[in-house]
Each structure stands twice: as C-alpha cells, then as structure tokens.
Specification:
By secondary structure, this protein is an alpha+beta fold. It has two domains: about 55 residues; about 45 residues, no CATH class. It is about 45% helix and about 15% strand. A three-stranded antiparallel beta sheet has the order 1-2-3, with no helix packed on it. A hairpin with a 6-residue loop joins strand 2 and strand 3. It starts with a helix and ends with a strand.
C-alpha cells in the first residue's frame, strides 16, 4: 500500500517539474509564467527529496525488527528443551559462523532437524 502511495506521489511531483518546465519553455517572455513554472519545479523537486528522505529516515519496526539475542543455529534458544520426539544423531559438524561443534537432532516421525551446540 505504501509503495503504491510513494509511486503516485513521485508521479505527481514529476508532473509538477515537467509542467513547470513546459510553462517556462512555452512562454519564455512572460515573467509571471516563469515565476509560476519555477514554483512548480521547486515544489516538485522538494517532493522528490521528501520521498527519498522519508524512505531513508522512517523505517517500519515490523518490516525490520531489531536483531534477536544470540540463538543457536537451529533458531531456538539453546536452553529450551527439544521435546521427547527428538533423537541425537551421529552427525556432528563445526558451525562456520561460531566455530562451535554442533550435533544434529532428528524427529524421526516428521524428519524435522534441529542443531544444538555440543558439550
């Protein structure tokens, strides 16, 4: 919804700039036309700048949440129990981001895998 609103506003302010430039080109000898054309151009450029600043300055917390506290590579906190269905497998690997040894846990009924730090 907001993306559509931004597009419509950009189209509107671009029309201001084009309209102001067209006025100046069409009636170069009329001073009041020049003033009106420049006003339209300034409003249009100001609108484009406002859209760019709004996009950079105001960000949605829902769309860009703050990073979560450190979690295991499986996504759940390491202190949470896995549940009775999960069984430890023989798969152990070194996590490339943390350098920790990780064990793979498997729920045989669903095939879901979880990764927990070893030791």
């Amino acid at each position: 919804m907001l993306a559509l609103a931004r597009i419509l506003i950009v189209l509107f302010v671009v029309a201001f700039v084009v309209g102001g430039a067209a006025m100046i080109v069409a009636y170069p000898a009329e001073i009041w036309v020049w003033v009106g054309g420049l006003v339209l151009i300034v409003i249009g450029v100001g609108g484009v700048v406002a859209i760019v600043v709004e996009r950079m300055r105001f960000r949605s917390e829902r769309a860009e949440p703050a990073p979560d506290p450190a979690r295991s590579p499986g996504g759940e906190p390491s202190s949470d129990p896995l549940g009775p269905a999960f069984r430890a497998t023989d798969e152990v690997f070194v996590d490339p981001t943390s350098g920790r040894h990780m064990r793979v846990w498997l729920d045989p009924s669903t095939g879901e895998r979880r990764y927990r730090p070893e030791g």
